[in-house]
Protein backbone atom coordinates (compact mmCIF):
# COMPACT_ATOMS: atom_id res chain seq x y z
CA UNK A 1 0.00 0.00 0.00
CA UNK A 2 1.42 3.39 -1.01
CA UNK A 3 1.33 6.59 1.03
CA UNK A 4 -1.27 8.00 -1.34
CA UNK A 5 -3.45 4.93 -0.88
CA UNK A 6 -3.23 5.31 2.89
CA UNK A 7 -4.09 9.00 2.64
CA UNK A 8 -7.10 8.24 0.43
CA UNK A 9 -8.28 5.58 2.86
CA UNK A 10 -7.94 8.00 5.76
CA UNK A 11 -9.85 10.72 3.95
CA UNK A 12 -12.60 8.24 3.11
CA UNK A 13 -12.68 7.13 6.74
CA UNK A 14 -13.13 10.72 7.88
CA UNK A 15 -16.19 11.08 5.70
CA UNK A 16 -15.17 13.15 2.67
CA UNK A 17 -16.54 16.55 1.82
CA UNK A 18 -19.22 16.68 4.52
CA UNK A 19 -16.77 16.15 7.35
CA UNK A 20 -14.27 18.43 5.64
CA UNK A 21 -16.83 21.21 5.96
CA UNK A 22 -17.67 20.27 9.54
CA UNK A 23 -14.08 19.92 10.73
CA UNK A 24 -11.41 21.45 8.52
CA UNK A 25 -12.86 24.68 7.11
CA UNK A 26 -11.99 27.83 9.05
CA UNK A 27 -14.85 28.63 11.41
CA UNK A 28 -15.05 32.29 10.40
CA UNK A 29 -15.00 31.38 6.70
CA UNK A 30 -17.81 28.88 7.22
CA UNK A 31 -19.76 31.49 9.19
CA UNK A 32 -19.36 33.95 6.33
CA UNK A 33 -20.54 31.41 3.77
CA UNK A 34 -23.63 30.50 5.80
CA UNK A 35 -24.55 34.13 6.43
CA UNK A 36 -23.99 34.91 2.76
CA UNK A 37 -26.35 32.11 1.76
CA UNK A 38 -29.03 33.41 4.12
CA UNK A 39 -28.63 36.92 2.70
CA UNK A 40 -28.94 35.69 -0.90
CA UNK A 41 -32.03 33.61 -0.08
CA UNK A 42 -33.75 36.54 1.65
CA UNK A 43 -33.03 38.93 -1.23
CA UNK A 44 -34.03 36.36 -3.86
CA UNK A 45 -37.31 35.72 -2.01
CA UNK A 46 -38.37 39.30 -2.77
CA UNK A 47 -38.77 38.31 -6.42
CA UNK A 48 -41.17 35.43 -5.77
CA UNK A 49 -44.29 37.57 -6.01
CA UNK A 50 -45.08 37.47 -2.29
CA UNK A 51 -46.38 40.41 -0.28
CA UNK A 52 -43.87 43.28 -0.74
CA UNK A 53 -41.73 43.91 2.33
CA UNK A 54 -42.30 47.66 2.12
CA UNK A 55 -46.04 47.14 2.43
CA UNK A 56 -45.57 44.89 5.46
CA UNK A 57 -43.22 47.39 7.15
CA UNK A 58 -45.62 50.28 6.53
CA UNK A 59 -48.49 48.32 8.04
CA UNK A 60 -46.36 47.57 11.11
CA UNK A 61 -45.10 51.18 11.44
CA UNK A 62 -41.43 50.22 11.26
CA UNK A 63 -39.06 47.31 11.65
CA UNK A 64 -39.57 46.84 15.37
CA UNK A 65 -41.82 43.83 14.79
CA UNK A 66 -38.96 42.05 12.99
CA UNK A 67 -35.85 42.99 14.97
CA UNK A 68 -36.99 43.55 18.56
CA UNK A 69 -36.91 39.83 19.30
CA UNK A 70 -33.22 39.74 18.38
CA UNK A 71 -32.33 42.00 21.32
CA UNK A 72 -33.44 39.52 23.97
CA UNK A 73 -32.25 36.50 22.00
CA UNK A 74 -28.70 37.83 21.56
CA UNK A 75 -28.35 38.92 25.18
CA UNK A 76 -29.83 35.72 26.61
CA UNK A 77 -28.04 33.38 24.23
CA UNK A 78 -24.63 34.97 24.72
CA UNK A 79 -25.01 34.98 28.51
CA UNK A 80 -26.01 31.31 28.60
CA UNK A 81 -23.18 30.16 26.30
CA UNK A 82 -20.54 32.12 28.18
CA UNK A 83 -21.85 30.81 31.51
CA UNK A 84 -21.79 27.19 30.32
CA UNK A 85 -18.29 27.63 28.97
CA UNK A 86 -17.13 29.04 32.26
CA UNK A 87 -18.60 26.05 34.10
CA UNK A 88 -16.68 23.71 31.80
CA UNK A 89 -13.45 25.64 32.26
CA UNK A 90 -13.94 25.74 36.02
CA UNK A 91 -12.97 22.07 36.06
CA UNK A 92 -9.40 23.31 35.59
CA UNK A 93 -9.56 25.04 38.96
CA UNK A 94 -8.65 23.15 42.10
CA UNK A 95 -6.65 23.01 45.31
CA UNK A 96 -2.90 22.60 45.24
CA UNK A 97 -3.23 18.91 46.10
CA UNK A 98 -5.41 18.27 43.08
CA UNK A 99 -3.07 20.21 40.82
CA UNK A 100 -0.09 18.31 42.18
CA UNK A 101 -1.83 14.99 41.55
CA UNK A 102 -2.53 16.03 37.98
CA UNK A 103 1.11 16.95 37.52
CA UNK A 104 2.27 13.61 38.90
CA UNK A 105 -0.11 11.68 36.64
CA UNK A 106 1.02 13.70 33.64
CA UNK A 107 4.69 13.02 34.38
CA UNK A 108 3.98 9.33 34.98
CA UNK A 109 2.29 9.08 31.60
CA UNK A 110 5.24 10.81 29.94
CA UNK A 111 7.64 8.35 31.53
CA UNK A 112 5.51 5.42 30.34
CA UNK A 113 5.59 6.78 26.79
CA UNK A 114 9.32 7.46 26.93
CA UNK A 115 10.11 3.95 28.15
CA UNK A 116 7.89 2.40 25.49
CA UNK A 117 9.21 4.36 22.50
CA UNK A 118 12.81 4.30 23.78
CA UNK A 119 13.20 8.08 24.14
CA UNK A 120 15.03 9.80 26.98
CA UNK A 121 12.72 12.84 26.98
CA UNK A 122 9.43 13.29 25.14
CA UNK A 123 8.70 16.66 23.46
CA UNK A 124 6.54 19.17 25.37
CA UNK A 125 4.51 20.33 22.32
CA UNK A 126 1.36 18.25 21.62
CA UNK A 127 2.10 17.86 17.89
CA UNK A 128 5.69 16.80 18.51
CA UNK A 129 4.61 14.46 21.32
CA UNK A 130 2.09 12.70 19.07
CA UNK A 131 4.67 12.63 16.28
CA UNK A 132 7.14 10.77 18.48
CA UNK A 133 4.44 8.39 19.68
CA UNK A 134 3.32 7.57 16.13
CA UNK A 135 6.96 7.26 15.12
CA UNK A 136 7.36 4.75 17.96
CA UNK A 137 4.43 2.74 16.56
CA UNK A 138 6.09 2.78 13.15
CA UNK A 139 9.35 1.61 14.70
CA UNK A 140 7.56 -1.27 16.43
CA UNK A 141 6.00 -2.21 13.08
CA UNK A 142 9.43 -2.24 11.42
CA UNK A 143 10.75 -4.45 14.20
CA UNK A 144 7.85 -6.83 13.67
CA UNK A 145 8.57 -6.91 9.94
CA UNK A 146 12.14 -8.00 10.66
CA UNK A 147 10.76 -11.19 12.24
CA UNK A 148 8.88 -12.30 9.11
CA UNK A 149 11.77 -14.35 7.73
CA UNK A 150 11.68 -16.57 10.82
CA UNK A 151 7.99 -17.40 10.43
CA UNK A 152 7.18 -20.60 8.52
CA UNK A 153 3.40 -20.20 8.49
CA UNK A 154 2.68 -18.60 5.10
CA UNK A 155 -0.76 -17.32 6.14
CA UNK A 156 0.73 -15.76 9.26
CA UNK A 157 3.50 -14.11 7.25
CA UNK A 158 0.96 -12.57 4.87
CA UNK A 159 -1.19 -11.27 7.73
CA UNK A 160 1.79 -9.71 9.48
CA UNK A 161 3.09 -8.23 6.22
CA UNK A 162 -0.31 -6.64 5.47
CA UNK A 163 -0.58 -5.38 9.04
CA UNK A 164 2.90 -3.84 8.96
CA UNK A 165 2.29 -2.23 5.57
CA UNK A 166 -1.00 -0.70 6.68
CA UNK A 167 0.46 0.52 9.98
CA UNK A 168 3.59 2.10 8.52
CA UNK A 169 1.69 3.78 5.66
CA UNK A 170 -0.87 5.23 8.08
CA UNK A 171 1.90 6.33 10.46
CA UNK A 172 3.82 8.11 7.68
CA UNK A 173 0.66 9.93 6.58
CA UNK A 174 -0.09 11.09 10.13
CA UNK A 175 3.50 12.15 10.76
CA UNK A 176 3.42 14.28 7.60
CA UNK A 177 0.35 16.08 8.95
CA UNK A 178 1.92 16.60 12.37
CA UNK A 179 5.22 18.06 11.15
CA UNK A 180 3.90 21.59 10.67
CA UNK A 181 0.88 21.35 12.98
CA UNK A 182 0.46 23.87 15.78
CA UNK A 183 -1.78 23.28 18.79
CA UNK A 184 -4.66 25.73 18.92
CA UNK A 185 -5.44 25.05 15.29
CA UNK A 186 -7.41 21.99 14.25
CA UNK A 187 -4.37 20.43 12.53
CA UNK A 188 -3.21 18.41 15.56
CA UNK A 189 -6.62 16.84 16.22
CA UNK A 190 -7.18 16.30 12.48
CA UNK A 191 -3.93 14.31 12.29
CA UNK A 192 -4.80 12.34 15.43
CA UNK A 193 -8.21 11.41 13.99
CA UNK A 194 -6.48 9.99 10.93
CA UNK A 195 -4.58 7.41 13.00
CA UNK A 196 -6.99 4.50 13.48
CA UNK A 197 -5.21 2.99 16.45
CA UNK A 198 -8.32 1.11 17.62
CA UNK A 199 -8.35 -1.02 14.50
CA UNK A 200 -4.63 -1.62 14.76
CA UNK A 201 -4.94 -2.83 18.35
CA UNK A 202 -7.72 -5.20 17.32
CA UNK A 203 -5.78 -6.55 14.31
CA UNK A 204 -2.64 -7.13 16.41
CA UNK A 205 -4.60 -8.94 19.12
CA UNK A 206 -6.41 -10.97 16.45
CA UNK A 207 -3.09 -12.13 14.96
CA UNK A 208 -1.81 -12.94 18.44
CA UNK A 209 -4.93 -14.97 19.30
CA UNK A 210 -5.30 -16.81 15.98
CA UNK A 211 -1.65 -17.70 15.51
CA UNK A 212 -0.29 -17.85 19.04
CA UNK A 213 1.01 -21.38 18.53
CA UNK A 214 2.76 -20.48 15.26
CA UNK A 215 4.39 -17.25 16.40
CA UNK A 216 8.01 -17.34 17.41
CA UNK A 217 8.82 -16.03 20.85
CA UNK A 218 10.47 -12.96 19.33
CA UNK A 219 7.51 -12.20 17.05
CA UNK A 220 5.04 -12.61 19.91
CA UNK A 221 7.10 -10.19 21.97
CA UNK A 222 7.16 -7.69 19.11
CA UNK A 223 3.37 -7.87 18.74
CA UNK A 224 2.92 -7.34 22.48
CA UNK A 225 5.24 -4.34 22.29
CA UNK A 226 3.23 -3.00 19.34
CA UNK A 227 -0.04 -3.31 21.29
CA UNK A 228 1.52 -1.63 24.32
CA UNK A 229 2.66 1.32 22.22
CA UNK A 230 -0.71 1.66 20.47
CA UNK A 231 -2.50 1.63 23.83
CA UNK A 232 -0.65 4.81 24.79
CA UNK A 233 -1.96 6.70 21.77
CA UNK A 234 -5.59 6.60 23.01
CA UNK A 235 -5.04 8.46 26.31
CA UNK A 236 -2.70 10.92 24.59
CA UNK A 237 -5.28 11.73 21.92
CA UNK A 238 -8.08 12.05 24.49
CA UNK A 239 -5.98 14.39 26.62
CA UNK A 240 -5.16 16.69 23.70
CA UNK A 241 -8.77 16.47 22.51
CA UNK A 242 -9.93 17.70 25.93
CA UNK A 243 -7.46 20.56 25.84
CA UNK A 244 -8.60 21.43 22.33
CA UNK A 245 -12.25 21.47 23.40
CA UNK A 246 -11.42 23.89 26.19
CA UNK A 247 -9.41 26.00 23.74
CA UNK A 248 -12.33 26.10 21.30
CA UNK A 249 -14.85 26.95 24.03
CA UNK A 250 -12.69 29.91 25.01
CA UNK A 251 -12.54 30.99 21.35
CA UNK A 252 -16.32 30.60 21.10
CA UNK A 253 -16.90 32.75 24.19
CA UNK A 254 -14.60 35.46 22.86
CA UNK A 255 -16.17 35.33 19.39
CA UNK A 256 -19.68 35.73 20.80
CA UNK A 257 -18.60 38.63 22.98
CA UNK A 258 -16.92 40.33 20.02
CA UNK A 259 -19.91 39.95 17.70
CA UNK A 260 -22.81 40.44 20.11
CA UNK A 261 -22.30 44.13 20.87
CA UNK A 262 -22.11 45.17 17.18
CA UNK A 263 -25.14 42.98 16.44
CA UNK A 264 -27.12 44.58 19.26
CA UNK A 265 -26.12 48.05 18.02
CA UNK A 266 -27.33 47.28 14.50
CA UNK A 267 -30.61 45.93 15.85
CA UNK A 268 -31.13 49.08 17.89
CA UNK A 269 -30.45 51.33 14.87
CA UNK A 270 -32.90 49.41 12.70
CA UNK A 271 -35.61 49.55 15.37
CA UNK A 272 -35.14 53.21 16.29
CA UNK A 273 -34.53 54.92 12.95
CA UNK A 274 -35.75 52.79 10.03
CA UNK A 275 -39.27 52.72 8.64
CA UNK A 276 -40.79 52.22 5.22
CA UNK A 277 -39.88 55.73 4.05
CA UNK A 278 -36.27 55.71 5.25
CA UNK A 279 -34.76 53.92 2.24
CA UNK A 280 -36.73 54.66 -0.95
CA UNK A 281 -35.86 53.38 -4.41
CA UNK A 282 -34.39 50.19 -5.78
CA UNK A 283 -30.93 48.77 -6.56
CA UNK A 284 -30.44 46.09 -9.20
CA UNK A 285 -34.19 45.76 -9.41
CA UNK A 286 -34.57 45.01 -5.69
CA UNK A 287 -36.18 47.35 -3.20
CA UNK A 288 -33.53 49.05 -1.06
CA UNK A 289 -35.58 48.21 2.03
CA UNK A 290 -35.13 44.52 1.17
CA UNK A 291 -31.37 44.95 0.92
CA UNK A 292 -31.24 46.75 4.28
CA UNK A 293 -33.62 44.43 6.11
CA UNK A 294 -31.89 41.30 4.78
CA UNK A 295 -28.51 42.63 5.87
CA UNK A 296 -29.93 43.47 9.30
CA UNK A 297 -31.39 39.99 9.67
CA UNK A 298 -28.02 38.44 8.78
CA UNK A 299 -26.31 40.58 11.42
CA UNK A 300 -28.95 39.57 13.96
CA UNK A 301 -28.45 35.83 13.46
CA UNK A 302 -24.64 36.07 13.23
CA UNK A 303 -24.02 35.20 16.92
CA UNK A 304 -26.22 32.12 16.54
CA UNK A 305 -24.40 31.03 13.36
CA UNK A 306 -21.01 31.49 15.05
CA UNK A 307 -22.25 29.30 17.89
CA UNK A 308 -23.46 26.66 15.41
CA UNK A 309 -20.21 26.37 13.45
CA UNK A 310 -18.07 26.01 16.60
CA UNK A 311 -20.39 23.48 18.24
CA UNK A 312 -20.68 21.47 15.01
CA UNK A 313 -16.92 20.88 15.03
CA UNK A 314 -16.79 20.02 18.74
CA UNK A 315 -19.80 17.70 18.49
CA UNK A 316 -18.43 15.98 15.38
CA UNK A 317 -15.07 15.30 17.04
CA UNK A 318 -16.81 14.06 20.19
CA UNK A 319 -19.00 11.67 18.20
CA UNK A 320 -16.05 10.22 16.32
CA UNK A 321 -14.03 9.67 19.50
CA UNK A 322 -16.70 8.33 21.86
CA UNK A 323 -14.94 5.00 22.43
CA UNK A 324 -11.34 4.85 23.57
CA UNK A 325 -9.41 1.64 23.02
CA UNK A 326 -10.19 -1.36 20.80
CA UNK A 327 -13.81 -0.39 20.17
CA UNK A 328 -14.97 0.60 16.68
CA UNK A 329 -18.32 2.37 16.56
CA UNK A 330 -18.50 3.45 12.92
CA UNK A 331 -20.12 1.05 10.51
CA UNK A 332 -17.47 1.71 7.88
CA UNK A 333 -14.85 0.12 10.11
CA UNK A 334 -16.75 -2.97 11.26
CA UNK A 335 -14.93 -6.21 10.95
CA UNK A 336 -16.33 -8.48 8.27
CA UNK A 337 -15.94 -11.51 10.52
CA UNK A 338 -18.34 -10.99 13.39
CA UNK A 339 -18.35 -14.63 14.42
UniProtKB/TrEMBL annotation:
UniProt keyword annotations, A-Z: Membrane, Transmembrane, Transmembrane helix
Ranges that cross the membrane: 20-45, 65-84, 255-274, 289-312
Pfam families noted in UniProt: DUF7972
Presence of keyword Membrane: yes
UniProt-recorded name of the protein: Uncharacterized protein
Provenance organism: Natrarchaeobaculum sulfurireducens
Taxonomy of the source species: Archaea, Methanobacteriati, Methanobacteriota, Stenosarchaea group, Halobacteria
Amino acid sequence: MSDSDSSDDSNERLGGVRLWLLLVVNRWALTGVLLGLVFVILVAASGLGLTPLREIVENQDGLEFLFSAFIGAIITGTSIVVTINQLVLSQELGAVGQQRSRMQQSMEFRRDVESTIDEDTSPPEPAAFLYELVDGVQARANELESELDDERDEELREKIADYVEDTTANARSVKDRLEDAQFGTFDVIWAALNFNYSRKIYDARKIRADHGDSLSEEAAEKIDHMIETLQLFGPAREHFKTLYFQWELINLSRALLYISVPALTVMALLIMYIDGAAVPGTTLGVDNLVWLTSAGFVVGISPFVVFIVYILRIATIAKRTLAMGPFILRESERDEDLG
